[in-house]
User: Which sequence fits this backbone?
């Protein structure tokens, strides 16, 4: 802390993680979080590697999945290492500026994900509702432009949140009851009325969350109406199967977030520990299991993965055969 007259100004924050967690479980918690991080990094890195090394995956739909993997990888790297060190090394301190940097990337990457899922829904809508025009509408160039647009238009609102929150006077507690720095967790510590700052941030967050969600719901309603017109059950099942992968991924992202939002609006309050557990589940579980969903549900990715597995297996066998025997 830094003295300023009779008050002190916060120069660093302390992340509590899970407030009610007993110290004897710190080691187990850090090990679980570290395992989640390693699996997330490796799984998403595999998807990116497969895309980079297999031209058969250079299709519009897989460019969208590539964006999701990149975003998931960056988000986990932004959010997890600090909370792992908090439990592993009892180092929960984070500098004032670093906390705001983390806050920006947490909200920015969440925003990017929301817009990429909108693009994902648009892809399925075109594939199901306009199959004859699909290849003309959803081209590599179109997906590239829309993907870059998603990464760019996600910048302003999180940046506005940081710019407005950074100069606030933080002169009371510096303890953030969360596993990472976010807008609510930080601004609640400000020694001033946070309403003029929290309301625009809340409206911006709802635009980013509910705007794409409205389009996603509309597109899938139109998709299901189109599927309902199909009389052949085989074709109907095939069409549903093409949408299921993306629908599962989108649901994992939006359903828990909407649950937290609507329960809070309904006046249902959870304890700090339960709230943080729910937030961590919807923040960290999807990035970890999304690549598994791709590999199990997407035929092209599954085939490329098996092909790579047999290549590595062959290399290993060749290595063992050529290794000199002592």
Assistant:
């Amino acid at each position: 802390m830094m003295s300023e007259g009779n008050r002190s100004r916060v120069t660093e924050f302390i992340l509590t993680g899970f407030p009610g967690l007993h110290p004897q479980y710190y080691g187990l918690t850090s090990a679980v979080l570290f395992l989640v991080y390693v699996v997330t990094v490796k799984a998403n890195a595999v998807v990116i590697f497969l895309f980079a090394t297999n031209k058969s995956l250079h299709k519009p739909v897989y460019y969208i999945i590539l964006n999701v993997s990149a975003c998931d990888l960056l988000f986990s790297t932004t959010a997890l290492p600090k909370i792992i060190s908090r439990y592993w090394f009892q180092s929960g301190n984070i500098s004032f500026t670093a906390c705001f940097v983390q806050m920006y990337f947490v909200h920015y990457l969440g925003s990017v994900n929301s817009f990429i899922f909108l693009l994902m829904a648009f892809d399925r809508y075109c594939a199901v509702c306009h199959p004859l025009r699909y290849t003309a509408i959803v081209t590599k160039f179109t997906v590239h432009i829309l993907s870059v647009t998603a990464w760019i238009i996600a910048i302003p609102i999180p940046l506005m949140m940081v710019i407005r929150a950074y100069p606030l006077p933080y002169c009371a507690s510096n303890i953030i009851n969360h596993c990472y720095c976010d807008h609510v967790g930080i601004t609640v510590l400000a020694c001033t009325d946070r309403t003029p700052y929290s309301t625009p941030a809340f409206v911006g967050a709802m635009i980013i969350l509910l705007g794409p969600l409205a389009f996603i719901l509309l597109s899938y309603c139109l998709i299901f109406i189109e599927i309902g017109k199909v009389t052949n059950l085989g074709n109907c099942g095939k069409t549903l199967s093409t949408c299921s992968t993306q629908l599962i991924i989108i649901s994992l992202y939006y359903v828990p977030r909407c649950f937290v939002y609507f329960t809070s609006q309904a006046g249902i309050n959870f304890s700090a520990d339960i709230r943080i557990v729910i937030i961590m589940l919807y923040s960290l579980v999807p990035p970890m299991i999304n690549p598994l969903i791709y590999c199990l549900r997407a035929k092209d990715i599954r085939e490329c993965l098996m092909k790579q597995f047999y290549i590595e297996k062959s290399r290993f066998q060749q290595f063992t055969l050529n290794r000199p025997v002592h």
User: Anything to note?
Assistant: The CA atoms of residues 58 and 227 lie 27 Å apart. The chain is about 75% helix and 5% strand. The longest helix spans residues 96-129. The first strand starts at residue 2 and ends at 4.
